[in-house]
């Protein structure tokens, strides 16, 4: 603990307490001791003193007791040698200063009853800028917002910015994040509130820019408001100081921005705020208190640039922002998720086999990215003509104190439904097989690619505020950039998939559901196990487990597998119970390891679709990125249309690429050795893994036995090849029997 910090705060405590003792003595000489004092229109007396000590200050005489209490809190002065770097003495000095400031404000109201405006908003025309302490009507109206989360917290700004433009930038930044801005104190006679007025801004409770007062003592009104919220909405009893302070630390997410030179009177106020768990961030070079302890993270942070002070404050306080309004030209919401963009409505598209469309989320360091920044690299939609296509790479970087790399695929999967929330935009698939279709109606409203970034930034903050502090989005439309991102993304997907390689379904008692795609396929319920990854390819068992930890009420719910009803085909009593309920009775049962007998339901987001080839006594599979004909007589798009609506279709099943080489892949039908055809691009991608799995099943170089489109695209074409290679499927028991 810096000796300079301790000196400033403790010296400030002595200075403020002595000053207010003098003011109180003067008031007692001027007025009768029984003179009524207090803040107007409130039942909470002087709320900081009342809430923390239970003292009801109603007269001048009553003020002697809290001042004596404040004097008793003052710690010994800092020693020149053997300074003990403890936070405790600073907290005591700070609390003493806060008590004294509240008494000081009560004395001001006694002396100048018209100094503060009564009501929500100042009367600028009459020169009445300062609103002073909130009355109980304002508390009830505004305080509930801090309880229900519609106001995530408040920034207490003391002092003034270098100029009006900077003040406007800082205050608007907090407004955009739905925070209240409580303003007090001046720096060299200038206040942030006066700067806001100079910049043409409206101030008052109605705009969440609250002008408490011109002096540092009026900052106590912010703490009083917070404590009254704890009593009014948290049910904390007056005098239970520990619960009051803990309520504020855990429920009222506030912090102090000190703009200007921090003297001893500001220092003691900052030390006092730490008792509430409210840190201070300054734009000047002051001694810092960086270790955690009382506050969630750091206590005092110095030299914060004005362009960064908002985001840095949010980060240090551990505040999670809930952005409720999204600034895009199209309507936005879950009601549009199931909307289709059909041929006649289509303006342009990205991905879907016509171009490459890839999505990747990566964790970033706080210093690496700028929150809310959306970068377009290449052409935007405004540069396209109707009917054109573009490649698209969506690269999202997320930073957060509580963020983990395990959460990357969970966040990545959200891209699907969040883009679908935009009216007139349709999104299908995920990872490197995504497809975005943009309607003419959306273009007419002014939709651009940047709007995708705006939506993802806002909703990641809103839906994952526990783990997200910063989001930056980059959208690539140049082919070389998209190809580069795709190569990197595929290596990341590989690493993620390999995390569950060694796990088996027998190792766990719990599987996880995924119902993200029910907007398109209402009866589809994907169940993810260690050996049955999500058919979209984005979620494996560990991903779902992490997703449930992030969002316990989300689409990935734990499913107790219960009694094993069929170990060969993979049917479980607990899963049956779950899917019957989740599909609203449309599906009563399915098997994890069979495509012939009651296979798992399939939606249009699957990476691959497998189909029986009866003449070859085997199966084929085709990936979304292959647009040619297949031995089943249907292209991928036709297959997806036939059985991708959430049905369980015997003889067909959707699955991920990774699932092909998992040990339980259609094990109930003979396993991977049934595979007789797949597109060359898919076979090349899985070549080594296919050979490893084939060898485990007793067949060397199995990938070379699988036909592809270079051999043929009908069963008649490929059968001679299979016979020549001695494919094991030809000698297995009949697939249908």
TrEMBL record:
Domain CO dehydrogenase/acetyl-CoA synthase complex beta subunit C-terminal per the UniProt entry, residue ranges: 493-736
Top-tier EC class: transferase
GO MF, one example: metal ion binding
UniProt entry keywords in alphabetical sequence: Acyltransferase, Iron, Iron-sulfur, Metal-binding, Nickel, Transferase
GO biological process per UniProt: acetyl-CoA metabolic process
Start and end residues of each Carbon monoxide dehydrogenase subunit alpha ,N-terminal domain: 22-108
InterPro entries, per the entry: ACS_CODH_B_C, CO_DH/Ac-CoA_synth_bsu, CO_DH/Ac-CoA_synth_bsu_3_sf, CODH_A_N, Prismane-like_a/b-sand, Prismane-like_sf
EC identifiers of the protein: 2.3.1.169
NCBIfam families: cdhC, CODH_ACS_al_bet, PRK04456.1, PRK09529.1
Protein name: CO-methylating acetyl-CoA synthase
Organism: Desulfoprunum benzoelyticum
